Structure formats: structure tokens, C-alpha cells
Amino acid sequence: MPIKITMPALSPTMTEGTLAKWVKSEGDAVAPGDVIAEIETDKATMEVEAVEEGVLAKIVIPAGTENVPVNEMIAVLLEEDEDASALDGFLKQGANDGAPKQDMKDKPAETAVNKASSSSSPMPQNASFSNGRIVASPLAKRIANQNNVNLSQVSGSGPNGRVVKADVEKAMKSGTSLSSSSPSMASGVDARALADAYGMEYEPLKNTGMRKVIAKRLLESKQTVPHFYLSVECQLDNLLQARASVNGEAGGAYKLSVNDFVIKAVAEALQKYPAANVAWTEDAILQFKHSDVSIAVATESGLITPIIKKAETKSLREISTEMKELAGKAREGKLKPEEFQGGTFSISNLGMFGIDTFSAIINPPQSCILAVGAGKEKPYVKNGAVAIGTFMTVTLSTDHRSVDGAVGAEFLQVFKRLIENPILMVA
Fold first, then answer.
1. Single pTM value for the model
2. Domain 226-425 class?
3. Residues taking part in catalysis
């Protein structure tokens, strides 16, 4: 019997993805473990492996298709020696939910979102929702976006109340579901309309799925999280001396960076002052036992935050080695979901770009992010005399619901003491 291959949930929070590439073509034989496609999630491009043997008989969703919902049929696999006529009948029947589904390797357990989308219970006549998300076909979403149609006001005639192309076209004709303003107009003047009106030349750079998610989450963070900012200046002379000594002794086997010391100091400070290692929920503040430190890494598609897990248990050398490995995978788009999802505290370091000081936006559901500036020499007073020292300014952004000013200030004092006395991190 034909095997239905569906869009896999490659992370617990994934609800849709982009089918970036088909590695196998129609007619190709498929063996368990073969990579058949590449799926672009909000943070990375991941390979999908087959666990069934057969022939890739039909590709339903072409490469490059965006916003493909989890559990959407993307292809059909025929077992060996199975007649092609079985495929025709399978497709004509609409590949109903009773047909077997191709399981994906490392697919997470079914989430509430998956259950909602595969439920056989009748749905409301207007747009179908799953966990707050409108259920619509990729084509319907694309047409709605291009024509400024509010999908929440469109009645779905597809399976389980799903909005399809015909529903959007019907809504466009009636004019009842047109949004009062386009998404770009919601935040001010439409840049494209303004540029076109005044003949301003430009080149549209298509937003990746990752860039769209970053924009959405940062906007939500600034709109819903009460940010509170605290800055402190740390003297780096002892740290730089210790770093030079360690790197000299290593003889090229490894090389510690200032950022490695910052990660270690944050991890230790969170253990010494756990009130800052928290997340806000409506019924309780979650205080985490380990320091899982997320570090912002710039990629061509945008920022991603790989995590040094249980960083308080790792040496500076281990942190340095793991950070280099994670940063390399991040830039290649090869991070696994568990390597960038989660974390209890974030670090954003722009010091290498010469930035003296800045304030970073919190990455929910975390409560804190530390913005690290450049270390620069400047004169200061020591024992009544003028001396020259190297100083670095760090700014802590906190969610004021869970980390108030006093907690943030005390955490920074612990962090400052560790940075200025690096021997405490190895004692």
C-alpha cells in the first residue's frame, strides 16, 4: 500500500517549514537511512532520512515551497514491486488520514499542535485554528499575503475546515476579509509603497524563514516583556594576563578568547546568584538548576543562539572547544534543534566589532541577556595616582517581572568580581 510521507516536526515548537530541496527524485529507490529531502526550519536547514524501503513515486510538494504545515503530505512512497495504479487510486482518494504515514527519523513525540491538525472532529466553519495558528494550505497563505486578505475571517472548505485557494479567492471577490492595513503598514509607513511612489531605486532581498521568525520574536519581546537595563564596567587587566599565560602554556593546542571567560563567568555567577537564572510564567517563576548559556552567533540568515549546556561544570578549555564547534555548525546551518533551543541566559558580544556599549533584546522565555562591549584602554585613578587600564562595559537586560533591579545589580556584582579575578573561575 502507498506510504504517505509528511512534513516532519523537526523540533517541539515547529508548526511549519520550507521544503528547501529534494535529494531524491521521482522514481528513485529509497532505503532506510537515505536522505530524501532538506527542510528549512526557523533556525536551520536539516536533512530528513527515510526509515522505509521503496520507490519515491510522487513528489507532492515541490522544492522551494514555503509554509508547509507539519503533517502535510509532501510525497508518496511505493513499496517494491507495487503497481503504479495503486498510486493513482491513493491520490484520487485524497490520501486520507487512514493511510499509513512515513515516520521520520528523530521525529519528536506528537505535540498538541500535531494532534489538533490531525483530529477528525469537525471544525468551525470559519478559519480553522491549531494552537492559535490558522490552518491553511501554503498556496492559500501565499495568495492571502499577496492580496492583503485576513485569513482569520475566511471560511475554510477544505478537510477539517482548512482554508484553501478557492476560499481566499471567494473572500477577495466579496471584499469582506480584506485587512484594514498591510503587515508593513501596521508599524508605520509602507517602505515599498513609499519607494515606488518617489522612484527610489532598490533591490528586494527576500526574507528567509529564519529572518521572519527573528523579526516576529524580537517584536513580541519588546512589546510584551518589560525590559530593564543595568550597566557595569569591568577591568580586564588580570583576565588578559591570565588568558595570555594560559594560551602560552597551551603551545597552540587551544586558544582561549575573552568571550570564553565571559561565558564561564556568567555560568558561575548564575550558580552563585541563582535568582537571575530564571524564567517567567503566569503561575510561577522557574528557577533553573544549571547554567545553560546561549551565545548569539551571526550568520548570513540572521542571529542564532547555540547553547553551552551545564556551562558551570565545564572548564575554560572545554567551553572554548565547544563554542568553536557550535559556532561553525551555526554558520553552516547544521545545528540540531537541541543545540539552539532552550537555554536559561543569553550573551550577545559585539565587542569584537568595536562597539563600546549597547542594550540587547531579551530572548523569551529567558529573563536575562548580557550585552558585552569592547575592552579598551583608558586612564583611571589607582591609589591616588593616574594609571592605564583596560575596561569593558556590559549591560544586562532583564525581564522586570522575574528579575528586578536589585537582583540584576547583585548578579552583575558577582559577574564583575569573577571577571576581574579570573583565578576564581579555575579554583
1. 0.67
2. alpha beta
3. 400
